[in-house]
Amino acid sequence: MKFQNKVVVVTGASRGIGQAICASFAKEGATVVGVARSDLAETGTAVNTAGGNFIAHNADLGTGTQKESHDVIAQILAKTGKIDALVNNAGYGVAGFYGETSWETQRDFIQVLVTAPCELAHRLLPGMMRRGYGRILNVASVAGFMPGSASHTLYGGAKAMLIKFSQALHSEQKGSGVFVSALCPGFTSSEFHDVNGTRAEMRRLPRFMWLSAERVAEEGYRAVMKNEPICIPGMQYRLISTFARLLPVKAAHRLGEARSRMFVKEK
Prior knowledge:
Elements (H helix, E strand, L loop, with lengths): L6 E5 L4 H11 L4 E6 L4 H10 L2 E6 L8 H14 L4 E4 L14 H29 L2 E6 L15 H18 L5 E6 L4 E2 L2 H4 L3 H4 L8 E2 H13 L4 E2 L3 H12 L2 H15 L4
Helix pairs in contact: 1-2, 1-8, 4-5
């Protein structure tokens, strides 16, 4: 079992992709520390059923300060002694146009999707490098390859940053024993769209566009274990992301506006 006697920390572990990733590591014998604001009992059951040990850690990474991220690492290390792998999965969407939302809402979003992943990785990296072993999986999105679109204004930019961050860290850590990957799923069947209020709009998508959380998690796990810098589950999303990157800038912008009209009512 590849993760026997090893510890993995998974943020956003209470549902969806995060819960499935916990189960993927548990199958390999890991001790899984699930971090989330909400109840983690269901994830604990999934981890134990898969053969791993589970530690629940309730924390809010969107407090607008860095103290919570620091405390999370300190408290977990006090329980486990070391952390061998980090999965930065916590995330959500902020619906609505940027100027119509509060700065506090956007600030907390940036804290969860950008600042916290970078800080958690930075705090854990020295120990991983010292031991010559570490795994960091940043859950980004195909949205990080797509042109910007109206509503959920910072989402694509935040995911693009995670992709670039993962690529850079992957290059820096070559030969160190620390593997870094960005997992970039497309539309995934989970509670994510219920939480951010876009379930009705998502029902318009054809069935072949949907991936299961379990498939995304397994592909992400395999990617970071093989030290692949980018993992895009699903041939349809690999084609879409390639097409988006090859488009001329103006054409890509028009595509983004057209995509916005699919999910945002005209004002």
